[in-house]
Structure formats: structure tokens, C-alpha cells
């Protein structure tokens, strides 16, 4: 809702981090997919076709806050959202997917057992930066994939 209201301008790089709350909160997959695709199209059309990092949807299966069997149900949903995101990204030559899957290590999560820890944010930033460097240098001809 916010992006179309922005004044068109030029950006070199954009990082998108969407999906985990949608997967958790029961947003319909088709609605999410269509919305994500529309967001990418708007960014490309109105903001100079920047390089875009589509942050993967974290897999909720190993989040300690979530009891069984909820962790399995939300794990399946979040993994499906991430797979669909990978498919959406394939349709854009300036977008790459950065997986946000991490080993089930408590240090990767904040004290609440759900949100990322500083360690996770550092790793996420490193992965995004690596993706931007590869894309900008042309060394990754398969933008749209990992």
C-alpha cells in the first residue's frame, strides 16, 4: 500500500523482507503471490529497475516458540511461501532470492524465540550484500535464482 504512494525516483538496490507474518497469519497464498509480484513490478517500473534482494521466507518449523504440531503446520506454510517466492523471482531479471534458512540454533533467535537475533541479522545482511555484489559485477548470470 505504501510503495505506490512514493514519489518515483531511482534506487540502486532494494531489500524486501515479507512473508513470515503472512504465512503465520493465514494470508491466502495466491493473494500473497500476486501482491509480491505487483510490488516487484511497481519497484521496477517506478524506481529505475533496481537490483532487488527478495529475502526468503524463514522456515518456521524449528522456531522454539511454536509448539508441536503448530510448528509443523506453520513450517509447511512458510516453506511453501518461500518456494512460491522463488518462482515469482524467476520472472524478473533484476531480482535474486536470498534464503533465510538457518540451522536450529537458539543463538539465531531473539529471546522471544521467534524474531531474529543480532547474529541472524548479520548473516542476513552478509547474504544480501554478497548477492548484490554478484549481481552488480555480472558474475551471477542467473539473477532470479540462488
State the share of residues found in helices, binned by percent: 40-55%
SS summary, helix count: 4
Q: What value does the average pLDDT take?
A: 91
Structural class: mainly alpha
Oligomer: single chain
Number of strands: 3
Please tell me what the overall shape is.
globular
Taken as a percent bin, the fraction of beta residues is 5-15%
Q: Runs with pLDDT <50, length 5+? A: none
Strand order of the largest sheet: 1-2-3
**Rg value:** 16 Å
Largest sheet: 3 strands, parallel
Q: Tell me the distance between the termini.
A: 28 Å
The succession of helices and strands, N to C, reads: EHHEHEH
Task: Please outline what is shown here.
The protein has 146 residues and is mainly alpha-helical.
Provide key terms for this protein.
146 residues, mainly alpha, single chain, 4 helices
What order do the helices and strands come in, and which of them pair?
Blueprint: E1 13-16, H1 20-24, H2 29-46, E2 51-55, H3 70-90, E3 95-98, H4 118-137
Helix pairs in contact: 2-3
Characterization of the model:
The protein has 146 residues and is mainly alpha-helical. Helices cover 44% and strands 9% of the residues. The protein contains four helices and three strands, in the order βααβαβα. The protein has helices spanning 20-24, 29-46, 70-90, 118-137, and strands at residues 13-16, 51-55, 95-98. The chain has a three-stranded parallel β-sheet. Helix 3 (70-90) links the parallel strand 2 and strand 3 (95-98). Helix 2 runs parallel beside helix 3. The two termini are 28 Å apart.
Amino acid at each position: 500500500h505504501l510503495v505506490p504512494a512514493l514519489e518515483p525516483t531511482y534506487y540502486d538496490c532494494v531489500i524486501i523482507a515479507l512473508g513470515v507474518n503472512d504465512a503465520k497469519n493465514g494470508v491466502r497464498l495466491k493473494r500473497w503471490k500476486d501482491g509480491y509480484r505487483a510490488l516487484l513490478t511497481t519497484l521496477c517500473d517506478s524506481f529505475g529497475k533496481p537490483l532487488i534482494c527478495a529475502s526468503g521466507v524463514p522456515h518456521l518449523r524449528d522456531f522454539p516458540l511454536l509448539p508441536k504440531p503448530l510448528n509443523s503446520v506453520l513450517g509447511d506454510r512458510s516453506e511453501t511461501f518461500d518456494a512460491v517466492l522463488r518462482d515469482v523471482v524467476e520472472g524478473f531479471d533484476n531480482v535474486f532470492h536470498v534464503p533465510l534458512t538457518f540451522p536450529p540454533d537458539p543463538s539465531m533467535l531473539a529471546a522471544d524465540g521467534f524474531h531474529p537475533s543480532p547474529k541472524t541479522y548479520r548473516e542476513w545482511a552478509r547474504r544480501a550484500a554478497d548477492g548484490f555484489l554478484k549481481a552488480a559485477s555480472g558474475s551471477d548470470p542467473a539473477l532470479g535464482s540462488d
